[in-house]
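Let's practice the habit of predicting before peeking. Look at the sequence and jot down your guess about where helices and strands might fall. Then scroll down.
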Amino acid sequence: MFCRTGSNPVIQKNKIFGGKNGGVLIYNSGEGLLVDNDIYCNALAGVWIKTESNPILRRNKIYSGKEGGVCIFNSGRGLLEENDIFDNAFTGVLVSSGSRPILKKNRIFGGKAAGIEVTNGGGGVIEENEVFENDFDGISLATGVTTTLLGKVDHLG
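Done guessing? Here is the structure:
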């Protein structure tokens, strides 16, 4: 599924699975509201947010991806709130390349790498997430990133 260049769809209560690429790609200033979806078993990340896109993801289950759960890069933004992101082959949420999302009250667990990784000039706000039982760090912040941690942030490895 693609959301791009000025698109602003509401995607609600769907099962998005088995994609040969990612489950949902939001790019070129795309927006949209994704709520109460199951996004799983895709060949790449469950959700890609890139190139100045700014969607809202709320109460989704993003899991069992062959790569990461959510990848945000190339100045992507967005609000990820109250999602369950779990059992992905790589990082639960990767923030990179000047991206600045808000991650709030998500549960990120059971991944084969870090729960949340902020790298390569990424940043944003991480607020009141539960990040646990990932194979690497709960939250991994690279040198020089500008990330704000707010409230109680549980981040057990």
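How did you do? Residues 132 and 156 are 5 Å apart (CA to CA).
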